[in-house]
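Pilot study result, target chain (244 residues):
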Amino acid sequence: MPADEHAAARPSLRERRRAVATQEIVDAAEIQLGEDGPAALSLRAVARSLDMTVQALYHYFPSRDALVTALVAKAYDDLAAAVQTAVDTASGGSELPRLVIAAEGYRRWGISQPERFQLLYGTPLRYYAAPVEGPTTQAVRRMGALFEREMFDGFTEDQLAAADVPALSPALRTYLENLPPSGLGNLPAPAAALFLGAWGHMHGLVVLEVFGHTGYLGEHQAEIFRVTMRNMTADIHRRIAGQA
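Predicted structure:
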């Protein structure tokens, strides 16, 4: 690369300083999330923890919503990374289906990061609305694509289209078939229905645990989750045409 092109590609000193300051603000906000929960997120408190004025913080995040969007997108990305790491580091001789391994990575992140999990899936922050087709939407789709791969890898489109699911209403089938390709629109309607049901099944168990509703199971929560995910995966595979 010519020297002038290399210089043009490199961020300026001002841009690098802005990136560092932005990351410090996000880190401070995550600390506040961990201490006080999503509902208590305050730009003033974040600024104070960094010895900044609120006015200075606005140079980096013009509103609370802008900071929340950054936090949500980062949390989704970190969750997806945890799921991917779980799959990548699983033993090649593991008897567990990759979908179960991915689900357990999802669960581990949720119970180890309860406040950030609540930011994603708890009570919506009052007056906050994620930007349409913004970074939070893209982050959700990246994670969805990861689970879609682990759920359906190795199956043909014809097999997915012939998945054994209860008859879908014409309205639902049309809706699923017209989802954007960047979402579930690349799946035949029966497979999309299977995916959504499996996602709700997995996510619902994690929500119950993170919010303390299955605490009575104690140390057995992990085993219950694994048994349920194995049964769910086996059922999905049985429903896809051509599987014994």
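One observation from the pilot: The chain has a mean pLDDT of 90. A full batch analysis is planned for the follow-on phase.
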